[in-house]
Design brief:
The protein is mainly beta. It contains no helices and 11 strands. The chain starts with a strand and ends with a strand.
């Protein structure tokens, strides 16, 4: 199970840090991604942190957040973070975290590839 938290109301240009805490085993072997869904729009990929060789992880971002958002993880706390800086009005959405054992470089942007989803946390950016 995944629990997302950290959303809230922030002014444009501000920052928020989202957290996604997991329960269960073998957390370090899962890719964990963040998606978001704005009102009236489809769910879209934001970022993912994917296991690589040995203890390394690959980080991937949507072009719209590259340079502003940073994804990281603390496996000991079974938590993935999404640090969001320089927030824009268009970042307003419900943010979901999701986990998968099967995503790869070819399909990490595809929501259907993720097996477990958190309940979502709402982020509102105001002017």
């Amino acid at each position: 199970q995944l629990q997302a938290s950290g959303g809230g109301l922030v002014q444009a240009g501000g920052s928020l840090r989202l957290s996604c805490t997991a329960s269960g085993r073998s957390f370090s072997t899962y890719a964990v991604g963040w998606f978001r869904q704005a009102p009236g729009k489809e769910r879209e990929f934001v970022a993912v942190i994917r296991p690589g060789y040995y203890t390394t992880y690959y980080l991937n971002y949507a072009d719209s957040v590259k340079g502003r958002f940073t994804i990281s993880r603390d496996n000991a706390k079974m938590t993935v973070f999404l640090q969001m800086n320089s927030l824009k009005l268009e970042d307003t959405a419900v943010y979901y975290c999701a986990a998968s054992l099967s995503v790869s470089v070819d399909n990490y942007v595809t929501a259907a590839r993720y097996d477990y989803w958190g309940q979502g946390t709402e982020v509102t950016v105001s002017s």
